Amino acid sequence: MEFHSKLLQPLPDSKVRGWNGPLPFYLAYPDLYEPKREAMLLQDLDYLQQMYPGQVKRFQRRIAEMLDKTDYEGSMIYDEYPDRYCLQALAGSMLKALEKEEEDPPTQDIVQVLLLTEIYKRRHGGRRGKIF
Q1: Can you tell me the distance from the alpha carbon of 34 to that of 102, in angstroms, rounded to the nearest whole number?
Q2: Average pLDDT over every residue of 56-61
Q3: Are 108 and 92 in contact (CB under 8 A)?
Q4: Residue 132 confidence class, pLDDT cut points 50, 70, 90
Q5: How far apart are CA 108 and CA 79, in angstroms?
Q6: Is the pLDDT of residue 22 over 80?
Q7: CA–CA dist 51, 64 (Å, integer)
Q8: 93 pLDDT more than 90
Q9: Between the CA of residue 4 and those of 7, 15, 16, 21, what are the distances in Å?
Q10: CA-angle at 65, arms to 63 and 124, nearest 5°
């Protein structure tokens, strides 16, 4: 009977209302996961990429064109955790193509950074080659 009598007692206000501990990170920054925020971040990224030096801009455009061939439904670039070695192999093949086309080709590091940035944009809605 003692158990049932405890169930019927009202809870103190401190247990019912408010938060009795540190705020979780997602409540401390309420607009962090706002849908408009991602579009704003992509727009900001596009603006900053427009300020790349001329040669890097040319490499970026060419890498985006080459990535269009691997941009399809179920592509490895949309995997939750893309394989590092596959991405390095893709960057290596892009570097070989750029070495054939350019007098002064980029380094492997620049190609990887530009490739990963382009993949990020496509994974978050900034896709260049529309499927639909």
Answers
A1: 42
A2: 94
A3: yes
A4: very low
A5: 23
A6: no
A7: 17
A8: yes
A9: 5, 19, 20, 29
A10: 80
The structure tokens listed for 58 are 């040319």
Average pLDDT over residues 12-27: 60
d(CA 129, CA 18): 48
* CB burial of residue 123 (10 Å; 0-12, 13-18, 19+): middle
Question: Residue holding tokens 């890498």?
Answer: 63
Cα separation, 99 vs 111, whole angstroms: 11
DSSP 50: T
Question: Residue 11: what residue type?
Answer: L
**Could you tell me if 110 and 56 are in contact, meaning their C-beta atoms sit under 8 angstroms apart?**
yes
